[in-house]
C-alpha cells in the first residue's frame, strides 16, 4: 500500500493500535465497537473504526481486507458515510464461521437495516467495492479481486455531492480481533 495515496485519509474513532507492516495497515480492533443505529429501540452504536477521506461526485472505491480468525460479528470492510445517522457498510458479517456471509447495512435517518448473502466457505481475504453514479451507490464483493459480484444498490435519502468514503472495522463482541488493510484504491469518475 502506497503511503502517499493515504495522505488525505483520517480516522474517525482511531484504533488504539494501528501500524504499517510490509503487507499493509494492521488494525487491532477495539472490543465492543460497532456501527448500528435503531432509533425505535434506542440503540446507537457509532464507535467502530473508520479510515476515510471525502469524495465529491462519482467514484469507485476498492479495498482489500485480510483477517485470519474473526470472531462472531467481527467486521472489516468498506463504508460510505454522511454522518452518524446516514451511512452504509459492506463486509464479512457473520454470526458463525460455519455460516460465512457478506453483509450490508444501509442506515437512513437513524434506522439501520441488515441484508446478508451466504458464502460457500470462509477465506482470509475479501475485496469490497463501492461505486457511486449520480447518487446511486452499488456495493460489490470479490473473492479474487478480478470477478466482482454486485450485492446491493441503494441511495441515501439525503444526497449531498460530497460524502466520506473509506475502510472500516469493528468488533461488537469481547474476543480479540485484528485485520490487515492490504489495499485501498479510490478513483474519481467524471
Q: State mean pLDDT (0 to 100 scale).
A: 91
Beta-strand segment tally: 17
Helix content: under 10%
Radius of gyration: 15 Å
Quick one: biggest sheet? Answer: 8 strands, antiparallel
Q: What would you call the structural class?
A: mainly beta
CATH class, named: Mainly Beta
Individual helix count: 0
Strand content: over 45%
Which stretches are poorly predicted, pLDDT < 50 over at least 5 residues? none
Judging by the overall fold, what is the CATH architecture? Sandwich
Describe the structure.
- The chain has strands at residues 10-12, 17-21, 24-29, 35-38, 43-46, 49-56, 58-66, 75-83, 86-92, 101-108, 111-112, 115-118, 125-133, 136-142, 149-154, 162-170, 177-189.
- With 190 residues, the chain is mainly β.
- It has one domain: Jelly Rolls (Sandwich), CATH 2.60.120.200.
- Strands 1, 6, 8, 9, 10, 11, 12 and 16 form an eight-stranded antiparallel sheet that branches.
- The model has no long low-confidence stretch (mean pLDDT 91).
